[in-house]
Amino acid sequence: MVRVVLLGPPGAGKGTQSHVLKAELGLDLLATGEILRRAADEQTALGRLAQSFMEQGKLVPDKVMIGVIEDALGEIQSTGFLLDGFPRTLAQARALDEMLEQRGLALNAVIFLETEEEKLVERIRGRLLCSRCNASFHTQFCPPAVPDVCDECGHTPLMARSDDDVETLAKRIAVFHKQTEPIIPYYREKALLHTVDGMQTPPAVSKEILNCLKKR
Ligand code: AMP
To answer: 59 C-alpha vs ligand 1 centroid, how far in Å?
Structure first.
């Protein structure tokens, strides 16, 4: 079974690709941003804690996120999964390796979606999300067939994420450079890293990722 991490800055297309890969490969998807947004909507203790960090474009503390992934891994039946949004720090990457090792498992691949930073703002700016099934759309680049209605599940209305404003996005990109980028050499040294050009069309990106996973 494939165990893969999707890495990239906000707007790189991780959410779009993770849903395609989930459908194509039948993998369990563990998307930490989705887990936290759901918890925030439901106002659970985790959601209330995470909300203030998310609104400020900051990372939720490692200890909390490692616990979230530990719980999520405990819930899935399969040994194949796709991680979107985790790990985001070196401490999380090391903790993930330990968690998997305890289960006799290891990652097969880490896909880094490389992007042009100046294009991220326009990608994020028109982004729309379905709050029911988490499918993502874009007013200009990937509009839903019927305005404001989710193509996947029919839910309406589609919403913009509260942390997708330009100011918070700039903070999230800075956080990516400072806290998340150091995990790229970590995975390169383990010979797990594949860099994919995230500026291609979404189907072209999916094709390249699938080709890459086939070789693993
Ligand atoms: P995403 O949907 O992946 O862009 O995540 C949205 C927000 O959730 C991030 O900006 C962080 O505030 C928080 N978040 C998601 N995953 C993590 C993680 N692995 N570590 C810390 N914070 C996270």
So the answer is: 6
Single-letter residue type at 178: K
Here the tokens at position 30 are 């563990």
Distance 116 CA to ligand 1 centre (A): 21
Please state, in angstroms and rounded to a whole number, the distance separating the CA atoms of residues 38 and 19.
Answer: 17
Instruction: Give the pLDDT score at 63.
Output: 98
Phi and psi angles of residue 196, each rounded to the nearest 5 degrees, phi first: -120, 140
Q: Is 167 helix (H, G, I), strand (E, B) or coil?
A: helix
Q: What's the average model confidence in pLDDT over 109-125?
A: 93
Q: Is the pLDDT of residue 90 over 90?
A: yes
Residues forming a β-bridge with 193:
110
The DSSP call for residue 201 is -
- Cross-strand pairs, 129: 136, 159
SS3 state at 153:
coil
Nearest Cα residue to atom 11 of ligand 1: 59
Q: Give the whole-angstrom CA distance, residue 10 versus residue 8.
A: 7
Query: How far apart (Å, rounded) are the C-alpha atoms in residues 110 and 83?
Result: 9
